[in-house]
UniProtKB/TrEMBL annotation:
InterPro entries: DUF7730 (IPR056632). This is DUF7730 domain-containing protein. Residues 1-214 form the DUF7730 domain. It comes from the Eukaryota. Pfam families: DUF7730 (PF24864).
Length: 226
């Protein structure tokens, strides 16, 4: 295989070791990596009944040292890594540096995060707990270490709150979103806010962060669809 041109070898590495959306989570104190059942992950919940075991051609990495040194980075650069704080025992995002070597973290190119702010680690009900600004700051700091990241998509939700997500963002959105200023690596950086009426006019500094509102289904005039 080493006799093939380098560009051809790189295409083989990407095809053999990449192309998956990988669910990263923490269960029983250990990292878990499963493949999403969709071609591109849109999950707000990692369903263990639907997830698939990873099926990369890792035998390629055992061919020889030259192949390993050329190919191993494609496990990180050629896959999408997906996280959700909803079921984590500990915030997986904060512990990526425990699970991956620094040089591997820098090779991650594509990440998607479903971030329910009222999950266990980011509960936002000001009537019950104070705003978890420390946890929020640690998570953004962890993201800032992904220096090779090119695409970052974050879905921010507040699905269990008994109050109004819009009012919550009016009170605390500026304090939270200023953390996005530290994320300057991704060329594509999108944050979907939790409510169609949330404010999107935040200062994100030199970051390329774009704040978007969730899509609202349009009513139909076709009586057959009612």
């Amino acid at each position: 295989m080493t006799k093939l041109p380098l560009e051809i070898r790189r295409m083989i590495y990407a095809r053999t070791l990449g192309g998956a959306s990988i669910h990263l989570a923490t269960y029983n104190g250990k990292p878990s990596a499963m493949e999403c059942w969709r071609d591109e992950c849109l999950c707000d919940y990692f369903d263990p009944l639907l997830e698939k075991k990873l099926s990369f051609g890792t035998g390629l990495l055992r061919t020889c040292r030259v192949i390993y040194s050329e190919a191993v980075e494609y496990l990180y650069s050629a896959n999408q890594f997906c996280l959700s704080t909803d079921r984590d025992e500990i915030p997986t995002l904060e512990h990526l540096s425990w699970y991956f070597l620094p040089q591997r973290l820098s090779q991650i190119r594509d990440m998607r995060i479903h971030w329910p702010l009222d999950s266990y680690h980011f509960f936002l009900s000001p009537d019950v707990f104070p705003m978890p600004q420390v946890a929020w700051a640690r998570s953004w700091e962890a993201l800032s270490r992904l220096t090779g990241l090119q695409r970052l998509h974050i879905d921010v939700t507040c699905r269990h709150l008994h109050g109004s997500p819009r009012e919550l963002w009016q009170e605390q959105g500026e304090e939270f979103m200023k953390m996005a200023r530290t994320i300057i690596a991704p060329r594509e950086f999108v944050v979907i806010l939790s409510d169609p009426e949330c404010e999107t006019d935040y200062d994100v500094g030199e970051s390329r962060c774009v704040l978007r509102l969730p899509e609202v289904p349009r009513p139909t005039d076709d009586p057959s669809l009612l």
